[in-house]
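FORM 12-B: Structure-to-Sequence Request
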């Protein structure tokens, strides 16, 4: 990092207090800059903490516990049917959110960040008019503005009904009640995670997905074990099927389907969760008074320093593009602030990990097999099935797979993909291997602790070499 530069005395205004915005604001304050952070919520946190990553993972933890307790009869232990107190469960989730967002509020104060609760609009490139949540307006003029306004659930006009029976991810996480039947529209990660929660709590969950498979874009061999398990916990998975209409009736929502797998063309569900992707929040009032350009899909255009077409304005997080993930958002926040501080930085990761927190989890980083096929790129793939993992067997969860995507000549690790319980925690090693330019031999020679699921990464490299003692594969 460079030493002090003049830029360190700048005033930075950050619009949006999610993982992108608060990371940027806090680092800027730590670098000595004057910082104003604006968000509508009482504390920083954004979608991730208030209505995204954190509340969903708190509920998924409970879902996992319920599922494991039911599975325990296979090991000679019976717990009986769970008694679910939805109010206490909601209280647990809200407590986690409150603790974390309150903690961020404290960290913000300790750093002397000026936190304004309200909505920001541009007067010009460096002046913001803030409509405060408690009433009144305030004008802030800064040297640089960072847009970190995030994203919101996408809405399909034909599926728009103004009734609490129609939910998006935000209202689903509110957990008003557990419906007897729930249709999840969209087989992406958010729909599958929330479907998993409701199924564990007792709803009969059906999923409808427009394309031919769940989690479009993910490698099919990783999705297969998840789909197999989901076929057991969900009432139905309708692929190649679209929802063509919804209508509220006294006992639920009547849904019309169009697709090959659909037996009856319509069905009534007590509630419907629409989870069909997210849209960037780039319609910031007054943005047209700046030089910021917004692309066709609604993402704010930025360069590798996260600077927009207006030199005084930077943009970070979901509002600038895929993958819309919290860890990508916070890293961009750090890069933007360092760039403003005058450091020579660029946001150009070799791998951004993605985790689907279903049961089993799916995780990948870097190049996927699907992507390589699409690009007609030659790769070598090394796979280790968890059926040969001692740790997976002790957990009674051998429905997993670890695979390495390698450069065919150098065997450099280009991508890592996994499916299996807890693999979301293992993918960090794969990400590090990709970023450090590791080759398969590095993974093979690194001693992994036994018995752990992390060994499967080393074992996949051993399979490639024909030296795995846990599997028999003839030498290449
Ligand atoms: C159900 C769900 C589960 C998810 N799970 C995961 C997960 O497990 N892992 C993961 O990495 N990601 C997950 N995500 C995605 C993650 O939440 C986002 O990628 C992340 O929050 C993006 O951060 P951000 O800072 O760009 O924007 P956001 O978190 O969206 O924050 C933007 C903030 O800006 C505020 N804002 C917008 N406009 C203005 C304005 N004009 N003035 C003032 N404030 C404004 C918004 O109110 C919001 O608070 C999940 C999302 C959902 C919905």
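FORM 12-B RESPONSE
SEQUENCE OUT:
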């Amino acid at each position: 990092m460079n030493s002090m530069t003049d830029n360190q005395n700048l005033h930075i205004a950050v619009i949006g207090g999610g993982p992108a915005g608060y990371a940027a604001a806090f680092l800027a304050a730590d670098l000595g800059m004057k910082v104003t952070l604006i968000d509508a919520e009482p504390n920083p946190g954004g979608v991730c903490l208030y209505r995204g990553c954190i509340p969903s993972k708190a509920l998924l933890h409970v879902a996992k516990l319920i599922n494991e307790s039911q599975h325990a009869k296979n090991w000679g232990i019976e717990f009986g049917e769970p008694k679910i107190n939805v109010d206490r469960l909601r209280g647990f989730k809200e407590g986690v959110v409150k603790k974390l967002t309150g903690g961020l509020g404290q960290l913000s104060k300790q750093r002397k960040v000026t936190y304004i609760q309200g909505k920001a609009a541009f007067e010009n490139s460096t002046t913001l008019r803030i409509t405060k949540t408690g009433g009144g307006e305030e004008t802030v003029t800064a040297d640089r503005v960072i847009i970190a306004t995030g994203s919101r659930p996408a809405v399909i006009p034909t599926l728009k009904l103004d009734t609490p029976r129609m939910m998006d991810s935000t209202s689903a996480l509110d957990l008003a009640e557990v419906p007897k039947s729930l249709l999840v529209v969209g087989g992406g990660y958010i729909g599958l995670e929330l479907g998993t929660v409701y199924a564990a709590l007792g709803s009969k969950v059906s999923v409808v997905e427009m394309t031919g498979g769940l989690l479009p874009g993910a490698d099919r061999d990783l999705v297969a074990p998840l789909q197999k398990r989901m076929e057991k916990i969900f009432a139905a998975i309708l692929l190649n099927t679209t929802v063509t209409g919804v209508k509220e009736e006294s006992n639920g929502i009547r849904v019309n389907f169009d697709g090959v797998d659909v037996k009856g063309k319509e069905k009534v569900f007590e509630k419907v969760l629409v989870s069909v992707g997210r849209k960037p929040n780039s319609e910031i009032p007054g943005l047209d008074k700046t030089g910021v350009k917004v692309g066709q899909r609604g993402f704010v255009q930025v360069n590798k320093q996260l600077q927009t077409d207006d030199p005084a304005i930077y943009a970070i997080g979901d509002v600038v593009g895929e993958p819309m993930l919290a860890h990508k958002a916070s890293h961009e926040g750090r890069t933007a602030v360092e760039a403003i501080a005058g450091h020579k930085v660029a946001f150009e990761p070799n791998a951004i990990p993605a985790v689907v927190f279903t049961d089993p989890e799916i995780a990948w980083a870097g190049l996927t097999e699907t992507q390589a096929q699409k690009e007609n790129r030659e790769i070598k793939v090394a796979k280790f099935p968890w059926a040969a993992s001692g740790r997976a067997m002790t957990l009674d969860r051998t429905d997993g797979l670890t695979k390495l995507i390698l450069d065919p000549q150098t065997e450099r690790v280009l991508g890592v993909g996994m499916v299996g319980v807890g693999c979301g925690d293992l993918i960090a090693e794969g990400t590090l291997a990709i970023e450090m330019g590791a080759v398969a031999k590095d993974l093979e020679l690194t001693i992994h602790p036994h018995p752990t699921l992390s060994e499967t990464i080393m074992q996949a490299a051993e399979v490639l070499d024909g030296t795995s003692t846990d599997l028999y594969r003839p030498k290449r």
